[in-house]
Amino acid sequence: MSLLKPFSKLPGLNTANILLVEGEEQFQQSLADALVEETAFTVNVRLAKSLPLPLENEESRPRIDLVVFIINLTSELSFQSAEASLKYLDPGYFLGKVCFMVTNARNASVPTEQLDAVRKLAASLHCPLLFAEDQTPDGVTNAAERLMTILKVAAGLVPMATSLYLSSLTRCTVPLDIDQPSFE
Amino acid sequence: MEPSDSVGDLNCTMEAVTLSGGPAPDSSTGQKDTSPAVMLRIKQQMSNQCFEIAVQLNAGKSKRSCSTPEAERELPDYVDELERVKTNHFNSTLTLHRMQMWHAIGEKLKQNDLEAEALKAVSDRCMALCSHIKELQKESRDLQEGITEIQKKRLEMKRLTHEKMKEIEEQMCKKEHPDTEKYRAALEKGQANLEKYKKMTIMTQNVLRGILLACKVNWLDDPVLRDIAMTLEEFPVSD
Prior knowledge:
A: Rossmann fold, globular, chromosome (chain A), nucleus (chain A), Centromere_Cenp-M (chain A), P-loop_NTPase (chain A), centromere (chain A)
């Protein structure tokens, strides 16, 4: 049972390590490229298709500050693989070191139940839910910026703010009428 | 639980790293400038991480068993408390910075060199502007008060005018009424009398005409009779 633990390794000096988990490996690469452009500190981006992570690089892998699950709303598989990967994450991560990112939320072919399901998942785990637009470079840059804000806090680079504190401010909430049919 | 042990060891190692000061010898990426700002930042980061780990440790210690709904209910209160404390801390930090700045400025002014001269000049100008501002504010306040007074008076005038107009209207209505009452009664009586006398006159005239015709008197020759007969013609014959 190889859980990914948040505090089992030393944190990197002036670095932030982020793990992007995406079932389909589409958005990961462009997002990673946008993320490493940060110059004030070193950003290490690790990509994975799902958890658990392979045991081979267990030793060489640095401590992961933030785990981002990228879910594509147009594919059911993406959501399921994200849900399955959640089991391999130590509970210590869910205090602000996990983030959900959703792409293709504006697509007309997406049923609203998908978005509601993702929302409920994020709300039950007290994690922030970000929406990203992955088709244009501007969208990728914006998504990277927002992730960077959360990453900086998770890596301890923002004085007076810890990821637990930030999570209490950014957690996803489910509106009370989510089970009502919407007027579309 | 074994994570807490490893976290405990980690804590000790972390403290060692922070206390030793300089950046640890890890894989250098080329941007290893050990300027004080970077060092301070790294130190901040490490203390932040230490804090997080300490929180985790403490969370493991107090094993208070409570249910999730209860925890959910208490969470907003704790978050509010946290917000309050953070705001207080921030305000205190601001005050502290202000005090430090003023102290530094004061010290500088005491030194009496070139920069102090510039500072003095700037502060004098500030004082002049502030007193000017105060004067202008006082003036504007006075003017505002004057305006308010005048507006109040105008309102009062309007109100009085309104009242007077109402009174006048009332008076006018009242005056017509009793006069027309008496008038009407007298008018009717007079008219009734007029009708009565008119009828009497007409009847007498008819009788006289009848007598004149019946007697077959030649009234044209006699001037007195002619006058009487002429007056008879003026009144219409009533039916």
